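Notes, Module 5: Reading structure tokens.

Key idea: the token line is not a picture. It is a compressed description, and you learn to read it the same way you learned to read a sequence, by spotting repeated patterns. We will look at two proteins. The first is printed below with its tokens.
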Amino acid sequence: MFSASIILAGYFIGNMHKTGKKYDRFVQVKGLSEREVNADLAVWPINITLTANDLNSLKINIEKQNDEVYDFFIDQGFEKAELTKGSTNISDVRADMYNANYRNNEFRYLAKSEFTVRTNDITRLQKALAESLELMSKGILLGSKNTWRPIEYIFTGLNDLKPSMIEEATKNAREVAEKFARDSDSRVGEIRIARQGLFTINDRDENTPQIKIVRVVSTIDFQLED
């Protein structure tokens, strides 16, 4: 009876060792999924710049130019909800002690009035950007708040893409694992560990920021079987 117990215990220990070794046989691979998508939201932060020597006339011109810019976008077909008038910052140039020529400036006051266009109609906004030069003929100095990127293009539909992209990344990872398994005379078993990577959204290139590349890389460990 005692010897039978030793034999039985030896079987379980040996079987656990074999199972453990089997579980240790796995391959770690990465799966990629990419999508090229169009931005579905655009934000154009604008500065309207004015100068004057009298605060009262500056106030009148600020209100007038803000209204003209607002009317311009309404005429372009934008809805009121897509247009936002922001704050106005006024600085006294001659009070700037760090400016070596502060006493010689022609205009004492410099005002920058903020205006923002936020829309889902990318084509309309690009048309308005091209035609905004006509405001210069009215003496309106219109500039983008972000000079390095006048319009910010955003893609908001990531959650709709996530399920299919994760599925594609997993499928891609399994294809890589299967190639490795064939080369090592093994078969790909079940997933051991899956690590979903971060989703990234980047411009396709510098010239077409309205077209985005959505990308995810998943890291997956597949069990290998004989």
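Here is the second protein, with the sequence above and the tokens below, as before.
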Amino acid sequence: MLSKNIKALRKAKGLSQEELAIKLNVVRQTISKWEQDLSVPDAAMLIRLAEELDTSVSDLLVDETVDNKSDDLKIISEKLEVINLQLAKRAEAKLKMIRCTLIALCILIILGFIVIALAGNEFINWDYSDPELAVAGTIFHGISWIFVRLAPFIFVAALIGIILTYKRR
């Protein structure tokens, strides 16, 4: 059913397995496995597959050979399509949340460096004979020392994470 529909629609569009695989960012063997009914695409990939083949998910899932149950299958496949769309939206929302968190982290790191640059190390000039100032100065110095050494690595990792969360289309 699904395997035959993928193969028929792919051929109708004049695409080879390799060409469809490139459009979906998968390997050719994945398309072959789908068409041989050895595996099935996940929900998000099923939506992308339907888009590339200019059809709906329900049309991909419907078995044309079953006449007496085609209405039931059509209803089920339409419900499945709605569920798949909801899952894809959740996955996209999760990616956006991760991306926004990483962007906020980058902004906080930049602001931290600006604060350190503007404030300087005034705590170094404090009178350390006062025990309270000595403790506070040591804490401030330790925090700034750790921040200056770790923040660049965290910043680069966050930038890489932001880049990786964008979908390739």
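Summary for the second protein:
- The first helix runs from residue 2 to 12.
- The chain has two domains: 2-65, 92-164.
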